[in-house]
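Trying the structure run again after the queue cleared.
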Amino acid sequence: MGSLNAQGPPGRRRSLLWCGLLAACTTTGPSGTPTVETPGELGHGEFVYACVESSDPVCRGDDTRPPFPDCVALGGEFELEYEVFEGPDAQVSSLSEEYFQVVASSRFRAARVGTAAMLARRADETVDYLHMRIVEPDTIEIRNALTGSPADTVLMRTGAKAIFELIPISGDCDPIGGSLNFTASSSDPSVVTASSEGTLALTARAPGEATISVEAIGMLHTFDVVVSDPPTRWPPGETETDTGTGSDGDTDSDSDASGSDSDATGTTGMDSDTTVDTDATDTDTDTDTDT
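Done. Tokens:
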């Protein structure tokens, strides 16, 4: 393997040197997300894969050294650059846009199932190349970006926001790469709204129920959202008390103690109402408990 040229910072050049000794390795990209590298098939440098969104399976999880993707999901987008070991820089291009379409500089979209080469070129010279495979995902999972929970029935409070990711899944290759474009809609935007810019973002507007529909690469997914108002809670140590005088001259005191409240998760609380009747001869205490 030749020596590294003087282009780029020393730390990056040292990283490339170590990567040249491995089948694949990773460094950190400008945005802080991991990039994954693998040698070109001519051995003159390395192709550097970067995730467009966090929903790309390559960039998910706690693995700080994820493997280079075995394939890319149909419809998936990704970034691919090339780091040359010697000589001037080379730019990545698609040998066939029938398979890999150019979205922007260094950004590509998998357009057709099959295998095609990505080229590293400078001027009229092909410096290196890499064959990449495109597969149709078996399914697409929609998961909460914070908890990783699947979107089944989503419970939200009014005013809350939740972010979800669309993750392509394939039994044919692992890991599979690519971030999917999709559309999303709500059956009742007055209850919850949905946006589809990179990730699926839900905003709860008012109490009620709505169905979210998400479509990507011809696959339609739906799930329900239930929105409820936040529970009313009295300040700690305080209770709501109504005091009045009955027709017999007795004093009635009605006290509602704050307790656990019913929320969207299905937890039912308990409120205690206590009525105290006092006269000259006796004291009666009645306790009613509503669950």
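Helices lie at 10-19. Worth checking whether this holds up in the mutant runs.
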